[in-house]
Amino acid sequence: xxxxxxxxxxxxSQRDHPAELAVLAVPSAGESLDAxxxxxxxxAPGELVRDAVEATPEQLALGGExxxxxxxxxxxxxxxxxxxxxxxxxxxxxxxxxxxxIIRTGSAEMPGMAAIxxxxxxxxxxxxxxxxxxxxxxxxxxxxxSQGPVR
Length: 151
Hints:
Blueprint: E1 7-12, E2 20-25, H1 34-41, H2 57-70, H3 72-75, H4 96-105, H5 119-147
Antiparallel strand pairs: 1-2
């Protein structure tokens, strides 16, 4: 229990792969899931339901700079995932708070960045991952469509 809310945490792993931690928040008594269910029903199967994330141009610029310096070497310049590492693609992530938590605390193979980034930098980097990589990806897609397939 944290801050009056219950969570279920499960560690998942298989041989020769790092463990992953999945954490689910248990709804509080009387909390309705109707809104989430109706929103989830409008998405394609397997598509994550995510709150809209806003970012200023300044946040995206700072986040992009930090991403290039600290993240791109493992996750790729466009968030496509590691070529020579187990770093996942950063396209289907959860809520902004979840992204911020991973950046701060790290994961099985990713170091936490809380010791080297300020709260403002973590927020900007989180917003860049949530918004900036999507914008970058859509721009790349429109360039590919106009120029034909990349060879």
